[in-house]
Amino acid sequence: MAKRDYYEILGVSRGATDAELKSAYRKLAVRYHPDKNPGDAEAEEKFKEAAEAYSVISDAEQRTRYDRFGHAGVSNAAGAAGWGAQGFGGIEDILGDLFGFGDMFGGARTGA
């Protein structure tokens, strides 16, 4: 199945500012969060999709590659390897940064 456009997922234009990206992601994260939609596989998938989109286009370097090459330009960053210990610290890092949770999810942050 082909991946959807990250800007489309977040509902923003390609020229969206960092603040617009953050706001759009925050709305989707709250709306589709698994805790608000227990047992809803579709909501969980949309939550993950929004997190992936935000993780790529909120990073200036990855956004540039994505804008130029599409998903192929960020496949290593946003694909299976990107969600591990290398390029992406985890959804807790994104939520912590967005909502100011800091170290609320326990333990020290493990980033690359």
Describe this structure in words.
By secondary structure, this protein is an all-alpha fold. The protein has a single domain (6-11, 18-99), classed as Helix Hairpins (Orthogonal Bundle). It has 6 helices and no strands. It has helices at residues 6-10, 18-32, 41-57, 60-69, 71-78, 91-99. The radius of gyration is 14 Å and the shape is globular. It starts with 5 loop residues before the first helix and ends in a 13-residue tail after the last helix.
The portion of residues assigned to helices is: 55-70%
Label the CATH architecture: Orthogonal Bundle
- The average pLDDT is 80
Separate helix tally: 6
**Could you name the CATH homologous superfamily?**
DnaJ domain
- CATH topology: the name is Helix Hairpins
Instruction: Give the low-confidence spans.
Output: 77-87
Overall 3D form? globular
Level-1 CATH class name: Mainly Alpha
What is the number of domains? 1
Order of helices and strands: HHHHHH
Task: Count the E strands.
Answer: 0
Assign the structural class, choosing from mainly alpha, mainly beta, alpha/beta, alpha+beta, or little secondary structure.
mainly alpha
Instruction: Please report which band the strand proportion falls in: under 5%, 5-15%, 15-25%, 25-35%, 35-45% or over 45%.
Output: under 5%
